[in-house]
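Retry 2 of 3 after timeout on previous attempt. Resubmitting structure tokens to design endpoint.
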């Protein structure tokens, strides 16, 4: 929207998103290698806090649009989809963190219906609603795109390649760490 054009946020959105994407990989890797069963709450904090940080960053434009609606009544059908994806994200977080239903019915959801499976189904719905919202946004903003500069390689696919490369480095370093622990005979879960 006009309030964001040429702002610090627009200029640095991809860079900050890239950094947060690598931080998510790092935090989730830390949570996998430093904690042993029974897992403490700190493990979930490592995982959830990094994901919430990047999700919040990616949701800032939507939150601004919701604020604009509350302040001056500007609504577009894309917000319906964005709100639905936020709800799906919250439901996904609930199932990720709660271990429901297997907590109340041990052994009944080992193969089908496990909370982690439900979490992944919810994340699929997040993506589907996000894409629906983006489609509506593209229809709404298509006249503005004619006047905007095209994104650079580094603000598009180049950013994806860099994040994949840095996440690969993070995963490789943690692989070396776990391998070293195994060589020393330490137990790795």
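Retry 2 succeeded. Sequence:
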């Amino acid at each position: 929207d006009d309030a964001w054009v040429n702002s610090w946020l627009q200029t640095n959105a991809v860079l900050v998103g890239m950094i947060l994407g690598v931080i998510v990989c790092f935090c989730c890797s830390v949570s996998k290698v430093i904690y042993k069963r029974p897992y403490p709450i700190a493990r979930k904090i490592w995982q959830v806090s990094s994901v919430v940080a990047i999700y919040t960053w990616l949701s800032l434009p939507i939150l601004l649009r919701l604020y604009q609606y509350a302040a001056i009544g500007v609504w577009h059908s894309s917000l319906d989809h964005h709100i639905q994806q936020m709800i799906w994200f919250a439901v996904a977080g609930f199932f990720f963190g709660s271990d429901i239903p297997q907590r109340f019915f041990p052994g009944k959801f080992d193969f089908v219906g496990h909370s982690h499976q439900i979490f992944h189904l919810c994340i699929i719905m997040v993506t589907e609603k996000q894409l629906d919202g983006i489609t509506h946004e593209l229809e709404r903003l298509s006249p503005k795109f004619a006047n905007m500069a095209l994104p650079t390689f580094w603000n598009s696919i180049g950013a994806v390649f860099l994040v994949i490369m840095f996440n690969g480095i993070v995963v490789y370093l943690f692989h070396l760490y776990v391998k070293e622990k195994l060589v020393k005979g330490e137990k790795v879960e």
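Attempt log closed. The mean pLDDT is 91.
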